[in-house]
C-alpha cells in the first residue's frame, strides 16, 4: 500500500509568510526553503494514498463548521531545552487554533501527539545555540495581525518539500488572497 505524508496548517498570509521565511533562511535553517511559513494543525502524518479522498472529505466538514478568526503574532518563544526551536508566538487566536486543531485531529486523522499542542510559527530549528539566540532576539519585537480564512492540506514530496494540496475555507470567511486551489 502506497503511503503519503500529509500535514494540515494555517498558512501565514503575505507579506508576512515570505518575510518570516526570509528570516528563517537568514539564520541558516536548511528547512526554510522546503517548509512554507505556517501554524501547524496536524503534524506530519502518514496516510494510505487511497485514503486521501476520505481525509479531504473530513477536512471539508471540519472547515465548514468553523468561523474565521484573528491571529496576532507577537514576540518570540522557544521550546529549548526540550527541543531546539525558536518561534514567533501566537498572542491572540490560541484557543481558536486549539479548537480547529482538535477537530482536524479527529476521525480519520485521530492520532496521539508527542508534545502538547502549542500554536506557533517556527523561525529556527536544529541550529547552533548562537543562531537560536540570534533568531530569538532579532524577532522579539515582531508584531502582526491577520484574519484566518481556513487551512490547507499539505503533502510532503519525495524531494523533501512541503506543498499545498488544497485549501479548506471556513464557513463564513473572508476570501483568501491567493488560494492554492479549493477541493470540491
Question: Topology, pairings included?
Answer:
Elements: E1 3-11, H1 16-26, E2 38-48, H2 52-64, E3 69-78, E4 85-92, H3 94-104, E5 120-125, H4 129-138, E6 143-148, E7 150-156, E8 162-169
Antiparallel strand pairs: 1-2, 1-7, 3-4, 3-6, 4-5, 7-8
Features:
single chain, 184 residues, alpha+beta, Cyclic Phosphodiesterase, Chain: A, four-stranded antiparallel sheet, 4 helices
Characterize the structure shown.
With 184 residues, this protein is α+β, with helices and mostly antiparallel strands. It has a single domain, classed as Cyclic Phosphodiesterase, Chain: A (Alpha-Beta Complex), CATH 3.90.1140. The chain is 24% helix and 35% strand. It is built from four helices and eight strands. The strands form two sheets. A four-stranded antiparallel beta sheet has the order 2-1-7-8, with helices on one face. Strands 5-4-3-6 form a four-stranded antiparallel beta sheet, with helices on both faces. A hairpin with a 6-residue loop joins strand 3 and strand 4 (85-92). The longest helix is centred in the N-terminal third of the chain and has 13 residues, at 52-64. Residues 173-177 have low confidence and may be disordered.
